[in-house]
Design a protein that fits this description.
14 helices; phosphoenolpyruvate carboxykinase (ATP) activity; PEP_carboxykinase_N; 9-stranded mixed beta sheet; decarboxylase; alpha/beta; 10-stranded mixed beta sheet; lyase
Length: about 700
């Protein structure tokens, strides 16, 4: 009898042969023997002892032996580790005529390194730095290529320094997994959370520093850009920019390695911009990998010279003795050189918003409107734009599970329709809850950057209510993390234009329909409350006006953008709406914040068109049209005066806010739009009485 098989499991077949009723090891005819003992079966160390007489030999189906696989082909551990990683090979690049490029892989890599070396070139030395692809911690293998020097565009005398004698390792367009490894290993304060996101810290700065942002003023943009009172554009001269650029480049070149991202802005292929981001932190590289449009391997092979370059040396301060510097932080934009320099702040949002400012300059020159808005699209192709500053609910309301997300923050409106500028989302996550914002909650997984959050040191679960580091906690993730994101992120022309205002005074209605002049008036005004944490030094909400709902980022006069918006709305029949996501029943500190569930019902009614069929009543002072009914919203809160316990206090507060609107608009009333002042007058008459 053969050996029994427990639990009725199938017998395991092996590689041994069966011959003449006996089991033999390969190469040993007739008997089963241990090595070195011919002709008998012996136990190890017991010579001469064999199978007892009469004991049947087990058959092949009764034997369970190790199914070993061949050993690895590597001869050393380093060689074994090199087999673990395989380089992906992109398809052969082709040009517009579908002709195969004749350049070899080595030649393309050489040109790529030459381009990066040129980007890092000092303006006081003849050549760029020596650069090499790969992690300096890894031993050089055959895949690592070096490029010694790139000629500068500026034929100056050679000036040899220590940094010119070393190689700078280029961490080029690393994957999220590679950037995780770099951050965890080398950047203190980097951790993996329980959902797989990368939690990191942005240093002393946990918000933007708008007072430290500078734009080079020259003969070409003196009359073109918006300067002076109310403008975000604080001027600096070319020389000071070059001083800061040199400081940033010298710092980056002194490092053993730098991270380089080559990516795109704008999903509209006709108006796409190539950007290069050079930074010192894996956190910054992953952040921008998420926020910009990620090129395919084929697009990367044919990337060419970037249209704009960022030098992020945020770990290194600027020289406060330098002209125009007011702190150790400086964010400088040079439109003619197509460069941006960051010193003295590690807050990653400076890169995102700096590029947005650049798009606010480049796109209108092409006849394309750039806007600070969220954007989504219904299943029938109806597109809605959501305008609003941080904290107004722009990201939350544009991320709707019942609609396709085109983008949450920055868009263009061209003759082709609307398009997202970015490749990711940057959502506030203070007080984030799964039941309130499920799409954003579920998007926080591997690949997401969590800025300045607090988490359990053991389980790594994030405490989204914890404000120990900052109010301005953020989640940065690729737009593909949203299940209903529309890829590519483009859509037809907008049907609804929704202006979101966080009214700290509590006197604006939850929703009102706007005429075209009213839309322009409130778009230029950009009234909201500056929510705590979105900028440095802001600890509690403050009533504020921000032109075009994004004055910190615009380059041209606000009325230029307003005129472009009105022209597109008129041409494509879009309707304007003002939605208050702020306070009801009193001002901030007395009333309550509008319930998100009510605001969602209002937005749903705008999308499905039911609000167009409602009956409207005009309010005093602001002359806003208020609907008599919105499904799912208590009718009494549609009229804000009904929610105030003190009618006289409501009236006084309403008149106070109207006066603030009028005073703010004095900055724009003298600007001429078109050949006459007719449009300007229409906008002024659309304001409060």
């Amino acid at each position: 009898m053969g050996m029994g098989v427990p639990n009725g499991l199938a017998k395991i077949h092996t590689h041994v042969e069966e011959k003449g009723g006996r089991t033999t090891a390969p190469g040993t005819p007739g008997r089963t023997t241990t090595p070195g003992t011919p002709g008998r079966t012996t136990a190890p160390g017991t010579p001469g002892r064999g199978t007892a007489p009469g004991t049947p030999m087990p058959t092949v189906t009764d034997i369970c032996i190790d199914d070993s696989v061949p050993t690895v082909r590597a001869k050393t551990l380093d060689e074994l580790h090199s087999l673990q990683r395989k380089r992906s090979t992109p398809n052969t690049p082709r040009d517009a005529a579908n002709k195969v490029f004749s350049l070899s892989e080595e030649e393309r890599l050489r040109m790529q390194l030459q381009s990066i070396s040129a980007s890092l070139a000092s303006l006081t030395r003849e050549t760029g730095p020596k650069v090499v692809r790969g992690d300096p911690e890894r031993k050089t293998d055959g895949a690592e290529k070096k490029f010694e020097h790139a000629k500068s565009h500026y034929p100056l005398q050679p000036n040899i320094s220590d940094s010119a004698l070393k190689f700078t390792h280029i961490m080029y367009n690393l994957s999220p997994a590679e950037l995780y490894e770099q951050a965890i290993k080398y950047e203190k304060g980097s951790f993996i959370t329980s959902t797989g996101a990368l939690a990191t810290l942005s240093g002393a700065k946990t918000g933007r520093s708008p007072r430290d942002k500078r734009v080079v003023k020259d003969e070409l943009n003196d009359d073109e850009l918006w300067w002076g009172k109310g403008s975000p554009n604080i001027e600096m001269d070319e020389h000071t920019f070059l001083v800061n650029r040199e400081r940033a480049v010298d710092y980056l070149n002194s490092l053993e390695k730098v991270f380089v991202n080559d990516q795109f802005l704008n999903w509209d292929l006709e108006n796409r911009i190539r950007v290069r981001i050079i930074s010192a932190r894996a956190y910054h590289s992953l952040f921008m990998s998420n926020m910009c449009i990620r090129p395919t391997p084929e697009e990367l092979e044919n990337f060419g010279t970037p249209d704009f370059t960022i030098y992020n040396a945020g770990q290194f301060p600027c020289n406060r003795y330098t002209h125009y510097m007011t702190s150790s932080t400086s964010i400088d934009i040079n439109l003619q050189r197509k460069e941006m320099v960051i010193l003295g702040t590690q807050y990653a949002g400076e890169m995102k918003k700096g590029l947005f400012s650049v798009m606010h300059y480049l796109m209108p020159k092409r006849g394309v409107l750039s806007v600070h808005s969220g954007c989504n699209m219904g299943k029938d192709g109806d597109v809605a734009l959501f305008f609003g500053l941080s904290g107004t609910g722009k990201t939350t309301l544009s991320t709707d599970p019942n609609r396709y997300l085109i983008g949450d923050d920055e868009h263009c409106w061209s003759d082709n329709g609307v398009s997202n500028i970015e490749g990711g989302c940057y959502a506030k996550c203070i007080d984030l809850a799964q039941e309130k914002e499920p799409d954003i909650w579920n998007a926080i997984k591997f690949g997401t950057v969590l800025e300045n959050v607090v988490f359990d040191e053991h389980t790594r679960e994030v405490y989204y209510v914890d404000r120990s580091v900052t109010e301005n906690t953020r989640a940065c993730y690729p737009i593909e993390h949203i299940p209903n994101a529309k890829i590519p992120c483009v859509g037809p022309h907008a049907k609804n234009v929704i202006l979101l205002a966080c009214d700290a005074f509590g006197v604006l209605p939850p929703v009102s329909k706007l005429t075209l002049p009213q839309t322009m008036y409130h778009f230029i005004s950009g009234y909201t409350a500056l929510i705590a944490g979105t900028e440095d030094g802001i600890l509690e909400p403050q009533a504020t006006f921000s032109a075009c709902f994004g004055a910190a980022f615009i380059m041209l006069h606000p009325t230029r953008y307003a005129a472009m918006l009105a022209e597109r709305m008129r041409r494509h029949g879009a309707t304007g709406w003002l939605v208050n996501t702020g306070w009801s029943g009193g001002s901030y500190g007395v009333g309550q914040r509008m319930k998100l569930s009510y605001t969602r019902k209002i937005i749903d009614a705008i999308h499905n068109g039911s609000l167009l069929n409602a009956k409207y009543e005009e309010t005093p002072v602001f002359k806003l049209q208020i609907p008599d009914y919105v499904e799912g919203v208590p009718s009494h809160i549609l009229h804000p005066e009904n929610t105030w316990s003190d009618a006289q206090a409501y009236k006084e507060t309403l008149e106070k806010l109207a006066a603030l609107f009028k005073k703010n608009f004095e900055n724009f009333s003298d600007y001429k739009i078109g050949n006459d002042n007719r449009l300007t007058q229409e906008i002024l008459e659309a304001g409060p009485l």
